[in-house]
Amino acid sequence: MGQCGITSSKTVLVFLNLIFWAAAGILCYVGAYVFITYDDYDHFFEDVYTLIPAVIIIAVGTLLFIIGLIGCCATIRESRCGLATFVIILLLVFITEVVVVVLGYIYRAKVEDEVDHSIRKVYNGYNGTNPDAASRAIDYVQRQLRCCGIHNYSDWENTVWFKQTKNNSVPLSCCRAALSNCTGSLTHPMDLYSEGCEALVVKKLQEIMMYVIWAALAFAAIQLLGMLCACIVLCRRSRDPAYELLITGGTYA
After folding, report:
1. What's the CA gap between 65 and 71, in Å, rounded?
2. What is the model's pTM?
3. What InterPro entries does the record point to (predicted)?
4. Cβ(90)–Cβ(29) under 8 Å?
5. What's the whole-number mean pLDDT along residues 140-166?
6. Chain centroid offset of residue 15 CA
7. Would you say 228 and 78 are in contact if contact means Cβ atoms under 8 Å apart?
8. Which of 172, 205, 209, 237 is placed for a possible disulfide with 108 were both Cys, Cβ 3.0 to 4.6 Å?
9. Which tops the pLDDT comparison, 26 or 45?
10. Is the pLDDT confidence value at 155 over 60?
């Protein structure tokens, strides 16, 4: 029964190391996705530290690939030193992912304050004639999230751009996608998106941060299982005289 348990631990450990390689790619993808998406919304928040969880998760993903390689070699050869190193590195990565989860929750809570602090300034700097990066960001967000203004389309009436154009119209990016003859005129409010962008931007950014948090939690659980299996193998190797190596050619070192 004991030997069956130790063999199962070894098998699970080998399988987990393969998962670590897959996890490395997934974590790097999640981190890159956060960077790319935040780039579309970066004008709506000023605190660059909100990207720290994404940076950490990309670093963890890169490290997981190396861990998977070390773990596979240590498990197949059943090196005591290799397995101990594997457990220590996994523990460090596990702690790092816990930090990612904590930071994710902290910055997720700060997103609303960040957007609320900067969105009015971004909208006030809109220039529809010669759109700069901030103006393109507003048009992109309004089309992508199907929103108009900060709280609703009437917010445009308080912007410098609206007062300068004097045509009682909002940007065409406020027009509903299904309408081809929309001019953005406030005399036809039914042609415009009724929902404001602030709440939707906050929701989008918080969703992105949740992807980071759930990815970190999922792979932290896998690493915990990996540490458990490695510790079982190490303990049985040290105490059980009837211990059998997984493959011929393994080492007792």
Report:
1. 10
2. 0.70
3. Tetraspanin/Peripherin (IPR018499), Tetraspanin_animals (IPR000301), Tetraspanin_CS (IPR018503), Tetraspanin_EC2_sf (IPR008952)
4. no
5. 90
6. 25
7. no
8. 209
9. 26
10. yes
| CA distances in angstroms from 156 to 50, 133, 168, 187, listed in the order given | 28, 18, 10, 14
Taking the chain, what is the end-to-end CA distance rounded to the nearest angstrom?
25
| Average pLDDT of span 26-39 | 77
Which amino acid is residue 84, in one-letter code?
A
Q: Six-digit token pair at 242? A: 């009837």
Distance (Å, whole) CA 16 – CA 120: 49
Residues 6 or more apart whose Cβ sits within 8 Å of residue 216: 53, 57, 60, 97, 98, 100, 101, 104
Tokens of 127: 């220039």
In single-letter form, the type of residue at position 164 comes to Q
Beta bridge partner(s), residue 169:
185
Within 10 A of 173 (CB to CB), how many other CB atoms are there?
20
Q: Distance between CA atoms of 248 and 13, rounded to whole angstroms?
A: 18
The pair of structure tokens assigned to 52 is: 């720290």
